[in-house]
Automatic annotation (TrEMBL):
Domain Cytochrome oxidase subunit II copper A binding: 96-207
TM stretches of this protein: 20-44, 65-85
A GO MF term: copper ion binding
PANTHER family, per the entry: CYTOCHROME C OXIDASE SUBUNIT 2, CYTOCHROME C OXIDASE, SUBUNIT II
Protein name stated in the entry: cytochrome-c oxidase
Family that this chain belongs to: Belongs to the cytochrome c oxidase subunit 2 family.
Subcellular location field: Membrane
Amino acid sequence: MFGRLMPETASVQAVLTDRIFLGLTIASALILALVVGLILVFAIRFRRGSRVDRHPLPDIVSREFEIGWTAATIFLFVFVFWWAASAQIGAYSAPPNAIEIHVVAKQWMWKAQASNGAREINELHVPVNAPVKLIMTSQDVIHSFFVPAFRLKRDVLPDQQTEAWFQATKTGTFHLLCTEYCGTDHARMLGRVIVMEPEAYARWLSAQPEGDDLAHQGERLFSERGCAGCHAPGSRVHAPSLAGIWERPVPLEGDRFATADAGYIRDSILQPGRDVVAGYAPVMPSYAGLLDDGEIQAITAYIRALGSEPGVVRELGTPEVRSNVPGDVRARSPAMVPGAPVLDVPAPPEPGSRP
């Protein structure tokens, strides 16, 4: 009977969420039954006109009862908080081997792109029993990514990146909804998540139109939009190198530090004067309005693909453990190779002009 009242359970997170929901429901029902039962007993036992001995209890009994009841309530609250919070916090930490998919929400559709370049609109193909990490942002207003069968719900915000992950446990097609009112056609902002067997997913992936993956798209944008003209080691402009900074601490002005993650890269592109790297002048122009969310995601993927080992330049698609020996990498970004010629790339266009 309980299963009929709940949506289909199709992910690892759904099992944990249902377990918490069921536990809280049972605990609430027991507490409600206890309170209602005591009210009925007292209302009947001590009703007006009854001949009940109303001698008060000794003070010590009353005090011990109150202390015990308060301690039990606090223990129950702390346990429930720990139980629910531990499951929810785990939803923010994707496994390191998770498949990465970038999602851009806009009125009124979901645009998804896998790291290998496969693109979809209002559909998301994933393999079963494999963790999937979603990196999401919005091009206009606040949306909310919701898959009932996965018990997955995460707000998608403009000018910010939010992350979530799931692991589907059964194949099939599941509803994807927007649960944040986002305008006239909010109710039509629908999609579906298609969970496939690994072999079927591999065939589907290979059948998609060929194109550059996100990292190579970002590499191209890095040069086309003028980034390489400043961040190349031999550039005439004194700007920090981006090789090997991913998820490493970056020293900032004012004796502060920031972690070079997706949020930091995005803020540095759109608000370069906000967190200036120590020892560098705040001369970088803002790219707000010049780069859309998909392009920012691509540049971020490129910087991430360069690795997190300082001074090491990696070929895109190679493991990060590869050493940086001059001449052993055939396809590098000129902006990241020490001593490479500086690209004569024009400065970013003025806001309002076409790039």
